[in-house]
Structure formats: C-alpha cells, structure tokens
# Entry
Amino acid sequence: MSLIKKIKPKFWDYHDDAAGHHWYGFNFRRNWKLIVALTSVVALTPLIIMTIIDYRLYRSAIEAEMLANTTRMVSNTWRTVSFFLAQRKSALEFVLQDNSYQDMKAPGRLATILKNLQSGVGGFTDIGLVNADGTMEAYSGPYQLYGANLCSKKCFRRVLKNGTYISDVAGDRGVEQRIVVALKHDLPDDTFFVLRAALEAGLLHQLLSQLDIGPNDDAFIINEKGILQTPSRHHGDLYDKIDLPVPGHSSEAKVIEADDASPNPLLIGYAYIPGTSLILIIIREKAEFMELWRRPRLKLIGFLILSITIILFAILGTATLLVHSIHVPIRNEWRPCIRWNTPINWPLLGGFLRVWPMRSIILWR
# Structure
C-alpha cells in the first residue's frame, strides 16, 4: 500500500468539502483519464495501423516469393527431365534416318548401334526392331526378347496410334527399372516397323536427387494414376500410390496449395512431361517459408510493444504533471477565497483558464 500511495497523484482523491454543493470545479480524476485516453488514441492508432499494414504486406510478399520460387524450380526441373527424354528420342530418330530397315536387321548391327548410343548420349539398356506383325525381328540387350510377339503390349498399340510412345517406368521391384521409347517408321511398300529401345529409369531419380531442396521437401515423378515412378522421401516407394490427389492437366508449371495427412500446409508444384503420362511433382512445406517471415515479424512486434510502453509512460507522466499543475493553485488559492470570502487572484485564474479549458466556476450564488 505504501508504494501505491507514493505513486498516486495528490489530486486523485481530491474533494473540496468546504465548498459544498456550490463548488463546480474540476473533476481531476476524470480529466486525467480523459487526457490519457485521447492522447493514447491519437498517438498509438497510427503506429498500430502501420504495423498491421506492414505485417500483412510483408506476409503477402513472402507468399508471392514462395510461389514464384517453387514455380521456377518446377519449371527448371521439368525442362531438365523433358530434355533428357527428348534427347534420347532424337537419338533414335537419327538412327532411323541413318540406317535402313534391312541394315538394322543384319547380325551385329543393332549391337553396334546400342554401343554407340550408350557411349554417345547414354542411358540406353537395349534396342530392338518390331515388324508390322508385332514380332521382335532383331534385338540387342540383356533380355530374351528376340522373336517375342508384342501385339498385345500397350507399347505396340500406342505407337501404332500415335507414331511415338514413351512408357511409364516398367520392371519388377528389386530389378532394374526401365522406360520404353518406341518410334514407328513407314516403309515404301506401305508397311512399317517399330524401333524400340529401353532407358535406365534410375537416371530420372538421379536428376531429381540433384535438386537443392529442404529435408522436409520432396521431388518425384508419378503417372496419371498417381503411381510413383521414382522413389519419394515422404510419400511412398516406387510403384506406391501417393496419398495426395493427382493434379489436373496443365501445359505449364503450376503450384497449388494442399494439406497432407498431418495436416500441414503444402505447396505442390507440378508439370506434365510432354509426350508422356508422367507428371513431375515437387512438394515443399509452407511452414519452412513462413518461418522466414515469422522471425523478423517477432522483432517488429517486440519493437511495437516497447514503443507503446514508452509512449504510454510519457502520456501518463505528462497528463499527471498537467493536472497536478492545475490542482495545486486551485487547492492553495481558491479554497481560502471560498472559505473566508477574500478577493481572488484573477490574473492567476486567467492564466489557468488559458492553460486548460474550464467549465463555468460558480464560487458563490
């Protein structure tokens, strides 16, 4: 209680009993509260509004940068993967232009071509010729495919329809996975043949593993059914179905926001690889980006609290000093005038009227 008495202004409990009901002077406590309230509103409102505006603008800027950064990463990776497949496809087209059907059927010719492809562009595991009946007429590679009939295979049916075909990742678990690339070539006698080659699917995973992403981020390739074509850090292994919805078709890189099973806000960047059913997916946790926004915001909030504290102390001190400077002369000068009907020091009263607006003071009837 002694501390409260020390800091409480003298005018706080002031009441002039001698004046009775004839005294209509200041209500010092009410005027002190009014000064503090109005000054606080005028001083603090612009500061708080500017802080809120800066808070929201900076958050919007971080979110925009987050989307742009993810879109840029997806776009660059999409170009890398697309170039990898397009380069191998172009190499097979060059083989078709540089070699006749009869030359490629010659013993050892496909083995030579395969060796050149492996040393030139790399990534090829086998190569073969399929006639119009779907029979493998010539083959070079580690598998026993010579003489096999591929009429019922999806690869053969799709290449007859579209002229080219790049398959999903094929192969059982634990063995080397591959991607089949097939090109249809018409012959002068109105027949055709198909040049079929297989690529090492593991090269796609190597391309994605070179991305500079965070430990909680992920990058992988799926097909249109949501089946993983490359291993994933957090969303399953090869040939597993991801626990996220398959994004809609788009001709360019896009970024959408979704929630995983946690649920944590996720940024899902994706792009369809042209000429295939493959979809590149890059997933980044939004919380990691927002942490870059949250840290400086905490400093700003701390500065705001410190500024408000200093301003309030200044307002309280100024209001107390002002009301006290009015209270002391009234207590010392006017009360004797009322009690003993002595003349009032009117110059002093006029000075205070100029300092502080006062209601009409009725000293006596």
About this structure: The beta strands are 124-130, 136-140, 164-170, 178-186, 192-200, 218-223, 254-259, 265-272, 278-285. The two ends are 41 Å apart (CA to CA). Residues 28-98 form the longest helix (71 residues). The chain has two domains: 43-289, 300-358.
